[in-house]
Automatic annotation (TrEMBL):
One of its GO terms (cellular component) is cell envelope. It is found in: Cell envelope. The keyword RNA-binding does not apply. InterPro entries: Peripla_BP_I, SBP_2_dom, TAT_signal. Keywords: Signal. This is Sugar ABC transporter substrate-binding protein. The lineage of its organism: Bacteria, Pseudomonadati, Pseudomonadota, Alphaproteobacteria, Rhodobacterales. One of its GO terms (molecular function) is carbohydrate binding.
């Protein structure tokens, strides 16, 4: 196995340690003023600053997201480093505080692309942005009762990915690799995250057709490699050779699972992942991972920033768009050993060129909610 997994874990540890030191110094504290000082919502902005609010730089997924955002700002004649990075390190409190500070610093003359870190955090972020007369597009995490059209034009759009079917397909491939029987464990994301919920449910959906597969345990790894390694070590202690397969909710947690098994001298247990990061695709090609799922984060990062920016300057008016242009699913591609090499050539060895004004080209339709919503 490549040593990159151990190097990756060390980088994550260092990033986490730096964040904790910053928080101890008061940099992560949340101070929200009672009023933003804005008394009007502007129809359009002039030369707004652009920011991406996201989790961390340790993850190849978020690096791809930001790379897309930087490519977009280049397309409008700005330098890549003009994109403001608001890195929350997995803290919803810091996510909101950083956005409030950015709104104050720019006087609301800004466009923000954002993953709120967890679903409940999306509402206060959106409310702060709308109150400031700024514009925001979100991805992945929001509650089902929060909708862009409830905020006029300022909440431009929300994109998520329909993880149920891809996660179910990966689970079926995993169960087939297990010979249709034995115990499986699941390492999930932050429990309140929409993708974490759907990826576990996809696994459960697949279990219906595999009566001889038993879900031994499902525990959160919080999208973190080291925590996933710890969870996998606990699974190995508790269940031992009952474990015949591992279903992970993202790539970097799969790295942790592989490292935990390597430390115990265990090999040959099939593992699935999610995100389609370059390292994960290499592991699929080598056979260390059974499969992963690509959500095209480069495009997602660029188009989310593009939507917020173009709405802010008045290129289009969000409130005049149909619902499927306000809430929509992003693209997904399943990657197995059979197609990993071709995928790598198309999406990793070469970055496709995108038209950042084709806002909804690769999307997969309007987000669907449970009937109660």
């Amino acid at each position: 196995m490549s040593t990159f997994i151990r190097d990756f874990i060390e980088r994550e540890k260092m990033n986490r340690r730096n964040f904790l030191l910053a928080s101890a110094a008061g940099m992560g504290s949340l101070v929200i003023p009672s009023a933003f000082g804005f008394d009007r919502a502007r129809a359009q902005l002039v030369d707004p600053q652009i920011a991406w609010s996201y989790r961390d730089r340790a993850s190849p997924y978020w690096l791809a997201i930001v790379s897309g955002g930087e490519t977009f700002v280049e397309s409008i004649g700005r330098p890549r480093d003009s994109l403001v990075n608001l890195i929350n390190e997995g803290s919803s409190e810091k996510s909101l505080a950083d956005i409030v500070s950015f709104l104050q610093a720019t006087g609301g003359n800004c466009a923000i692309a954002c993953d709120a870190n967890d679903s409940p955090n999306a509402r206060p972020i959106v409310e702060a942005v709308a109150a400031a007369g700024a514009y925001i597009s979100t991805i992945w995490n929001k509650t089902d009762d929060l909708h862009p059209w409830d905020f006029g034009d300022n909440y431009v759009s929300h994109m998520t990915w329909s993880d149920l079917k891809p996660s179910e397909d990966l689970a079926r491939a995993l169960f087939d690799a297990m010979g249709g029987e034995g115990g499986v464990v699941h390492i999930g994301g932050i429990p309140a995250n929409n993708p974490a919920i759907e990826r576990l449910q996809g696994l459960r959906n697949a279990l219906v057709d595999y009566p001889n597969i038993e879900l031994l345990d499902a525990q959160p790894g919080d999208w973190d490699t080291q925590k996933a390694a710890d969870v996998m070590s606990q699974f190995l202690t508790r269940y031992g050779d009952q474990i015949k397969g591992v279903h992970c909710a993202n790539d970097v947690m799969a790295y942790g699972a592989l490292e935990a098994m390597r430390a115990e001298g265990i090999s040959g247990i099939p593992v699935t992942a999610y995100d389609g990061n370059p390292e994960a695709v290499d592991l699929v090609m080598k056979g260390d991972l059974l499969g992963t799922c690509f959500t095209n984060p480069h495009w997602g990062g660029g188009i989310t920033a593009a939507l917020a920016y173009h709405a802010a300057i008045g290129t289009f008016k969000p409130s005049e768009e149909p619902p499927e242009h306000r809430e929509f699913y992003g693209p997904t591609i399943l990657i197995t050993q059979a197609d990993a090499e071709n995928f790598k050539k198309e999406f990793i060895d070469a970055t496709p060129t995108y038209d950042w004004t084709d806002f909804w080209g690769p999307t997969n339709g309007q987000i669907q909610y449970p009937a109660s919503n």
